[in-house]
Amino acid sequence: MKPNPAAEQVFFNDPAIDRLMGLTMALATEVYVLRDRLRALENSLVQQGTMDAKSLQSEISPEELALHQADRDAFVAHLLSPLLGQESSLGMKP
Amino acid sequence: MSQMDGRSFSAAQDFLLGAKKFWTTQMYPLLRQQDQALATTGAGTVQTRMQKSNLYPFYAWMERHLQRMKYAGRYGLAPWHDTQREELEQQLSVVLIDTVAGFEMPPYYRSFDVHQHPGGLMGDSLAGFVYERGARSTTPLDKHFDLHHRFTNLIGQWMQPQRILDLGCGFGKSTRPFAQTFAQAQLTATDLSMPCLKLARYLDSKEHISHVKYLQADACASGLPGASHDLVTSTMLLHELPLAHLRELFVQAYNLLAPGGWTVHLDFLPQVQPGADEFTQFIHAGHSVRNNEPYMQSLAAFDLTSHLQGLGFSDISIEPFAENDLALQADYPFWRFPWTVVKARKPLSTTRQQT
């Protein structure tokens, strides 16, 4: 990091939005990098006959969905629980 | 997979290019539509209208930060090339470029990071590689290299120069089309950046071009002999010069040209574009700030015609330039650079004393 970097330009009335945009776009870039990597892996597995392309593209079976339901629920809770505005540990009362 | 590799670099850069395309083809047209609708109601200046826009902050943020991420983000051009430092430096290690006598680096050149390129074009031995890779994706809709051939083809419509000087040549992106279009001409190309000049020579060798003389020199004080060229040209240089340097560049151009020679420059002027209005100029001024190109605005405000007339040039024209076949339609919907050709001739018989 540069010593005493200058303040970045601000475009929103609340500078917090500028910073959240940066965070969101950084994550979106990572998601796209992973999507690309996954596509390459899938293509390779299909070409090698390790994976069936049709089964990969068809709807997920109820059994498989059920198998991963707990993981899905944990993912959703982790993502959305901050929206509830509740503290996770006992804090000091104001 | 924790380290950046070639695949993750190219995927991330492709994502950023896709985002830039969305910005170019979706955000910009919508912003313009919204502004035109507000303008018809007499809702203040474009500045006040943009202050009320919900879209403009996102538009401006994307313009600023897509460029930041492209150059300096985790998958940016600068960190990517740094992973290959040894190999890339080796490629340029045998390239030798002369520096003109008395050369001095102008202080403005290192006072900010142009294009948000970390360290600018002189900050690192790999700066030329970083710039070259970045230039491949400057605009998502056009093959950015095509416009250079359009430019040289345009010049070829009225002259066949034999002695060409390409000022601010960078890594030779503008120079090689001159070398190819006017293959018999003597061609000299100058730039401030030694990393770019070395890459220019290296890339020339890849394309079997050997007759370009590259020199490290200031376009405003080249040290080259007077009356020695019949074409003095530049591409995307004028908007990178402070006003005093811009004025001096044309003084130099006049002196460097033989009588009857032409000075021809491809650059950006929003006001001469078809359908230009205050929105066009506002967007251009904003781009100047957001892309770290402060002298775009002083160029746009400068009276080039009067300056050229005052120096003794004739046949002066300042005309919009089409980087693609549709670009100069007044209702062209997408964001674009306001490409412009500035052209003037040194008279065959000159009464003005050489300065």
Write the layout of secondary structure elements.
The complex is a heterodimer of chains A (94) and B (355).
Chain A: H1 15-47, H2 53-57, H3 62-67, H4 69-80
Chain B: H1 6-40, H2 46-52, H3 56-72, H4 77-82, H5 85-92, E1 98-99, H6 127-135, H7 146-156, E2 163-167, H8 175-181, E3 186-191, H9 194-206, E4 212-216, E5 229-235, H10 243-256, E6 257-268, H11 278-290, H12 295-301, H13 304-311, E7 314-320, E8 339-345
Parallel strand pairs in B: 1-4, 2-3, 2-5, 3-4, 5-6
Antiparallel strand pairs in B: 6-8, 7-8
Helix pairs in contact in B: 1-3, 6-9
Which CATH architecture of the largest domain in chain B would you pick? 3-Layer(aba) Sandwich
Oligomer: heterodimer
Extended strand count of chain B: 8
The greatest interface here is:
A-B, 18 and 23 residues
Poorly predicted sequence stretches spanning 5 or more consecutive residues of chain B: none
| Major β-sheet annotation of chain B | 8 strands, mixed
* Overall spatial form of chain A: flat
Fraction of residues in β-strands of chain A: under 5%
Shape of chain B: globular
Strand residue content of chain B: 5-15%
| Total individual domains of chain A | 1
Q: What's the total number of strands of chain A? A: 0
CATH class of the largest domain in chain B: Alpha Beta
